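Lab notebook page, bench 4
Experiment: in silico fold of construct C2
Operator: M.H.
Input chain length: 107 residues
Purpose: comparison with the prior construct
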Amino acid sequence: METSLDPRDDGLQPVRVTVSVRGRVQGVGFRWWTRARALELGLAGSARNTDDGRVEVVAQGSRGAVERLVRLLSEEPSTRHRPGSVVSVSTPLESEPRAGVTGFVER
């Protein structure tokens, strides 16, 4: 995910992104691991299994923290003991943050 070119953007601007993670990511603790990392970063959102074997991650919070989570989802090899194996992470789909969203849940 690219960082904003706006010099006033210090990474603290709120953002909401959705990514799909492909690989061996279901039934291995991947959603739990994603939730733990998101909460460490102060993010809200969810991680859910999809019928085609992906995990969809929706994360909301400061741009810097969201970018960090996407990097952690993508990095290979994982420096944070991520379970399973990731083949690809989709390009983040950015949207407006939603008011009142708190916590990070596994669905």
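Observations: The chain has two helices and six strands. The first strand starts at residue 14 and ends at 24.
Next step: discuss at group meeting.
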